[in-house]
Amino acid sequence: MPCLLYKPNNPFHLSMHITTPFKTMKLIIPFTIILILSTLIVTASAATAVLDTEGKTVRTGVQYYIRPAARDVAGGLILASRNGSCPLDVGQARSGADLGSPLTFSPVNPKAKTVNLATDINIQFEVGTICVQSTVWRLTGPQEGTGRYYVTSGGVKGNPGIDTLDNWFKIEEFMGTYYKLSFCPTVCDTCKPLCGDLGIVIENGQRWLVFSTDRPFPFEFVKA
């Protein structure tokens, strides 16, 4: 398109560009509009929306359950305590029939209305607890003795940057049908965070969500 507008095929077209700037402007304006629209289309196609079990877009601020792919093993995600004290940690309900507790998702862009793949998001349980900490997720660790990084509560929603680096997670596609959670925040240009998937470990019969580089936790979104 630019070649057709700015490199005409004969001298007559060239003289028209030189002597009639108004006509040239009329050509440039539509071209500018086309360029802007093309950019918007490319940007929109690059952002892939996350879908729930009904095939609908997962919306910001709307409550959803995270239902595991393997429901014969355990249920959805909940808040529980690993050591009998606060803050609470993110684990799995023991029964596969238990959907767990509802969650909301807040993208790093506060104006976003939908949740997209590979975008930094805050995740928050929409439940009351006995602890004073928030129910926003954050990654903590390494745990002394095990070296594990656990997903716990007490995070901060919004305010992207170095001070909230451990509060940001991402949703990725998994096996074409399900999703997985990962930790690799991009809210700090000078930071070098850990990067990997979130998976499940079993400790004393209870299943906990942890940072794991080799065993993701596949799931789907069920609207609450």
Short summary of the structure?
The protein has 224 residues and is of the alpha+beta class.
Number of helices: 3
SSE succession: HHHEEEEEEEEEEEE
The number of domains is 2
Shape: globular
Topology (elements, then pairings):
Blueprint: H1 2-6, H2 11-19, H3 21-46, E1 64-68, E2 77-80, E3 89-92, E4 103-107, E5 121-125, E6 138-140, E7 150-152, E8 170-174, E9 178-183, E10 196-203, E11 206-212, E12 219-223
Antiparallel strand pairs: 1-12, 2-3, 4-5, 6-7, 8-9, 9-10, 10-11
Give a written overview of the molecule.
This protein is an alpha+beta fold and 224 residues long. The chain folds into two domains: 2-46; 64-223, Trefoil (Acidic Fibroblast Growth Factor, subunit A). It contains three helices and twelve strands, in the order αααββββββββββββ. The strands form five sheets. It has a four-stranded antiparallel sheet, with no helix packed on it. A two-stranded antiparallel ribbon has the order 1-12. Strands 2-3 form a two-stranded antiparallel ribbon. A hairpin with a 2-residue loop joins strand 10 and strand 11. It starts with a helix and ends with a strand. GO terms for molecular function: endopeptidase inhibitor activity.
List keywords for this structure.
224 residues, Trefoil (Acidic Fibroblast Growth Factor, subunit A), two-stranded antiparallel ribbon, disordered N terminus, endopeptidase inhibitor activity, Prot_inh_Kunz-lg, Kunitz_inhibitor_STI-like_sf
